[in-house]
Amino acid sequence: MGKKNAHKGANPPSGFRKYAGLLFRSQTGTIGFFILLMILIIAIFAPHIAPYDPTSVDLRGMRMPPFWMEGGSMEHILGCDNLGRDLWSRIIYGTRVSLLVGILSVLLAGAFGIVLGMVSGFYGGWIDSVIMRVTDAFFAIPRILMAMVVLMVAGSSVGVLILIIGGTSWVPFARMIRSEVLALKEKEFVKCSRSIGTKGTVILLRHILPNVMSSFIVLCTMNIAGNIISEAALSFLGVGIQPPTVSWGVMLAEGRKFLGTHWWIGTFPGIAITISVLGIMFLGNWLRDVLDPRNQGIK
Question: For residue 41, is pLDDT > 90?
């Protein structure tokens, strides 16, 4: 009787409790989670956190250093840029644009890539050949170069940048999902479904899609970091986000001329990019370890 009660009391943890426990057992996963949480809070509540309007010009504060340096002030803890705009406020508002571009472009690329990858891997034949040759063509052209050319022709805005980055970063999704589908369609449960006449679209949605979602989520997380860097690079080169819209890439571009004399103008946006990308990569690595069914080291 006691054994039965003991067995009943040993209920397995729920899904949320299980993954929360695994997260907080991983140092890098925990660090990544809290960095990403902090970035999301800053982005959502930017108007309430930022002490100043990020576009407000104050010529009296031109190139004011951070508060701990001579000439600095606690009113502008990270100093001001070449037009006297508060750097801390601009970094806070830049979080919104950089994160928005990173997340939405990944959702666009992921949706496009997962559809092409599933169709290519499941149906094979000439459909697979056509999709893979298009994929190879996109893979052969440097993504930044392609984005620069299109942005020069189409013009720069947040919406256009999301479309361009998303439209040039779907290739890894398509290739990875295709390889997973090629393995899954040889499994017994898929063969049984096909043998009883189940439609291909039903098999894809009901049996294939749930089994590729873990890899898809991991790749999405990794690509958010990459797309934030892409936005910063394009804005730094002058073809991405344009002033007065604030992004970390725009701030880097504006600060590069002053790195030798007023280093803080370009350094702090670079630190913000580095911390954000590292946090997202840490969380992505943890997700990869936890969601990969072949990984036997996670219990």
Answer: yes
